[in-house]
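Notes taken during the Thursday session

The instructor put the following on the board and asked us to keep it in front of us for the whole hour. The protein is Dihydrofolate reductase. We were told not to look anything up and to reason only from what is written here. First, the residues (190 in total):
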Amino acid sequence: MRKLVYYIGISIDGFIAGPDDEVDFFPMSDDYLQWMGSEYGDALPAHVRAQFGIADAPLTKFDTILMGRRTYDPALAAGITSPYPHLTQYVVSRNHRSGDPAITVIRDEPDVAVEQLKAENSGLDIYLAGGGALAGQLLPLIDELVIKTYPVVAGAGLPAFVSGFAPSQFDLADVKTFSGGNVVSTYSRK
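Then, after some discussion, the predicted structure tokens were revealed:
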């Protein structure tokens, strides 16, 4: 069975974006960017993969992406209807209508859809791209967290998880640090 991996960037105080979905305040060092491209290139949208020179690189971690509507919206605002054409793309939204055949919209019961995706016969995992409400809803199904902590305090914004009080334990599997202060922590479900 493949894993649902929440691969997400957060501020020191736990926000994945600013109050108006800003992410441009997250600082990135060169060694951190190089690591992202080499280790998690599958999780980059197509235009960024092209900038990194890995547009046609084989997939190594993910073959499927699951994102909430607010995570998908910036691509739409830029006129991009299929931001991850190298992955099978799912958007969870009750009211979004996709005109792109590469996008499958999950309207109801994302937990059921995730269970079905996890049961598929694939050697690669599912990338949960966010947002916080979707991650909170799917928390019991998340197998691994890859938390990219940026050395900045946002003060307010969108939290990494939006849910009620529901402690979920994970084991720390790996920590990587980078010259600019970025830290990547990988956790596996306990």
